[in-house]
Design a protein that fits this description.
By secondary structure, the protein is of the alpha/beta class. It contains seven helices and ten strands. Helix 3 crosses helix 4.
Length: 252
């Protein structure tokens, strides 16, 4: 059975799945306010592949957390897949993330007491899918592991897997509930160049075949260049937003 990885609802390629307006985030540091993001406006369309880049401390991970509803902005708004995150309670945002959003992190975040297959099944369990769907859910999870090249590692625990294998399990898990958007925070940061390239190729294939919008934060200029669009942050503001340079072109 071939897993269905994106919602069956038709989505126009130019439809904005993410709309951020005047997004600001301030933290208290040493008793003083520290503005990490200031006045960020951003539209990201369906099926887009967007890389968010910038120096350390520029607000990249903070922006990702706000767009995904993991944190609340100090000011401004985020509308994701037609839903205003600011109008939701914490519990409502958590349920929304389970059903609409996938995550891939630098440190994998796999549950060590669960096998690869069981880790991929976690999002379905959090979504409360009933017994009647159990067989289909397991088939989908197995198919996802097959698509990331780990069908023969389904019953291995994270400690028995390499870093690249764990990241591929995390990718399969991220797609388990057919997310509209996949957020990835430095997904190749703990991987060697060859393994990182393989993980990125899988993400690109899933982005194309599933129609899932892909937004990733990275310091890797080669990875960023593979995106359709690069958003560059500096000092908590968007200083550049446009198409990624063509292969072989010098980035300016």
């Amino acid at each position: 059975m071939r897993a269905v990885l994106a919602s069956d609802a038709p989505v126009s390629d130019d439809q904005a799945v993410i709309k951020a307006r005047d997004l600001c985030r301030t933290f208290m540091s040493g008793g003083r306010p520290l503005e990490v993001l200031s006045g960020v406006d951003l539209d990201i369309g369906a099926r887009a592949f967007v890389a968010v880049v910038g120096p350390s401390g520029s607000g990249k991970t903070t922006l990702l957390g706000l767009l995904a509803g993991l944190d609340r902005p100090t000011a401004g708004s985020v509308v994701l897949d037609g839903c205003d995150l600011a109008t939701m309670t914490e519990d409502e945002r958590a349920r929304f993330r389970v059903n609409h959003i996938g995550f891939v992190f630098q440190t994998f975040h796999l549950l060590p007491t669960l096998t690869a297959l069981e880790n991929v099944l976690v999002p379905a369990e959090l979504a409360g899918k009933g017994r009647g769907a159990a067989r289909r859910v397991r088939e989908t999870a197995r198919d996802l592991l097959d698509r990331v090249g780990l069908a023969d590692r389904a019953h291995h625990y994270p400690v028995q897997l390499s870093g690249g294998e764990r990241q591929r399990v995390a990718l399969a898990r991220a797609f388990a509930n057919q997310p509209r958007v996949l957020f990835a925070d430095e997904p190749t940061g703990n991987l060697d160049a060859e393994t990182g390239a393989r993980v990125v190729a899988i993400m690109e294939e899933l982005n194309r075949s599933a129609g899932t919008t892909l937004v990733l934060v990275t310091h890797d200029t080669d990875l960023a260049a593979r995106a359709d669009r690069i958003v560059r942050l500096a000092g908590g503001r968007v200083v550049q937003d446009g198409a990624a340079p063509a292969a072989g072109a010098e980035e300016r």
